Amino acid sequence: MTARSFDLAVVGGGLVGAAVAWGAARTGARVVVLDEGDIAFRASRGNFALVWVQSKGMGMPEYAAWTVASSEAWAGFADELGRESGIDVAHRRPGGFHLALSDAELQARADNLKRLHNQPAMQRYPYEILDRERVRGMLPEIGPEVVGGSFCPLDGHTNSLKLLRALHTALARAGTPYLARHAVETILPRGGGGFRLLSSGGTIEAARVALCAGNGNARLAPMLGLSVPVRPQRGQIVVTERVQPFLHHPVVTVRQTDEGSVMLGDSLEETGFDTATGLGVTGTIANRAVRLFPRLARVNVVRTWAALRVMTPDGFPIYEESTSHPGAFVATCHSGVTLAANHARLVGPTIAAGRLPAETFAPFSARRFDVPQAA
Amino acid sequence: MFRRLPDAPPATATILVDGRAVRAVPGESVAAALLANGIVACRTTPVSGAARGPYCLMGVCFECLATIDGEPNRQTCLVLVRDGLRIETQSGARGLGP
């Protein structure tokens, strides 16, 4: 039996895989996407859909710069994707808030952002610490406990379900096969170059392979001489019925979607591969949201869910080519929405070209974890 | 489209639908009262603006939403008729409320 052969096999059809695949396919490469299908732990269908900048990059200024670049590229990316897919992903960039419910919280927030921006080599971006009255001018529904907040004009949000659908539609229109029920079990280097991917749905051959399988990358990477120490980190989300627009800026824990639903979130738990929800966390999420916006108390909750972030030890992405298996790449992060523009415009095309330029990607190598722990 | 069974109890209650008095059977669901009075659409959807009316009549489809005594997005199939209930049909998404 002859396996189907491609220039690039992307393992994983979530937001990261779909964006990388679309970016690669647009360069003319013959790309295939292998995906577990609907049984996958799909962070892309459970995330909070922020395109977020403020507070990112503490400990790695290059990540702040990478995030700012994606935020800047997002509007153009959304336009292009809209043209090629016919789907408006509802990207907005009105600036976003992190709100504080006490003076101590506000001070801690201001200190954190100051430390972030004081890092050597930090690419600074605009933000402001606003007092209660200035916040209220922009978010009229805040409750009496809100003392102020941080505002970053680069922050925005999108509809991440539409984003995933748009990427898959664009891929299909570009002639890129999406193979569901192709859970990749083994990846073997081929004599003379390239790779064989043995999946539950059959064997595929490709000159290059990009691992974009989220938490699945931890298992697959060692087959290609890579180390990708990612773990699942659970986030729970509460969603309300649709209401008339009242919240015109996303808040890191509360945002109103383009269709009117209000999403409440931002929990994190270390619970392994477990997507259960519970009243302890969802109740806390709801309580805090009502303290921020008291009139939410009268709005009905229609759904709760949990999804699993793809988390590295330091929280930053990994983009790397294998040194032992040239042509094998990994791209993994917990910000598949925020970084989608970079993945489509930079990561996909550079992987298709066979090289991740060191000046951009060297800081994101997983070799940063190969250092002895300090005593 | 709908009519009551011949042995239905008498419609002795009055409810207000968008300010108009209509007759209803005490204890039947508001959804049933709307349908019996020829009111098949009780709202329009927030996203497309399409008309919606009672469908499953058993509390699962959330199509039959209307404002009842000032409370928006009530499931009319789960609220029983009492004399004097005020029903308002809804246009698009509800507001935040008081």
Describe the protein.
The complex is a heterodimer of chains A (375) and B (98). By secondary structure, chain A is α+β, with helices and mostly antiparallel strands. Helices cover 30% and strands 24% of the residues of chain A. Chain A is built from ten helices and 17 strands. In chain A, the strands form four sheets. In chain A, strands 1, 2, 8, 9, 10, 11, 16 and 17 form an eight-stranded mixed beta sheet that branches. In chain A, strands 13-14-12-15 form a four-stranded antiparallel beta sheet. In chain A, helix 1 packs across helix 9 and helix 3 crosses helix 9. The longest helix of chain A has 25 residues. By secondary structure, chain B is mainly beta. Chain B has one helix and eight strands; from the N terminus they run ββαββββββ. Chain B starts with 12 loop residues before the first strand and ends in a 7-residue tail after the last strand. Chain B is globular, with a radius of gyration of 13 Å. In chain B, strand 5 and strand 6 form a beta hairpin. Chain B has one domain: 2Fe-2S iron-sulphur cluster binding domain, sarcosine oxidase, alpha subunit, N-terminal domain (Ubiquitin-like (UB roll)), CATH 3.10.20.440. In chain B, strands 2-1-7-5-6 form a five-stranded mixed beta sheet, covered by helices on one side. In chain B, strands 4-3-8 form a three-stranded mixed beta sheet, with no helix packed on it. Chains A and B meet through loops of A and loops of B.
Write the SSE topology.
The complex is a heterodimer of chains A (375) and B (98).
Chain A (H helix, E strand, L loop, with lengths): L3 E8 L3 H11 L5 E4 L8 H4 L3 E2 L9 H25 L10 E5 L2 H15 L10 E4 H7 L9 E5 L3 E2 L2 H14 L4 E2 L4 E6 L5 E5 L2 E10 L5 H4 L10 E10 L13 E3 L5 E3 L14 H14 L8 E11 L6 E4 L6 E5 L7 H14 L4 H4 L14
Helix pairs in contact in A: 1-6, 1-9, 3-6, 3-9
Chain B lengths: L12 E5 L2 E5 L5 H7 L6 E2 L6 E2 L12 E4 L2 E5 L10 E3 L1 E2 L7
Parallel strand pairs in B: 1-7, 3-8
Antiparallel strand pairs in B: 1-2, 3-4, 5-6, 5-7
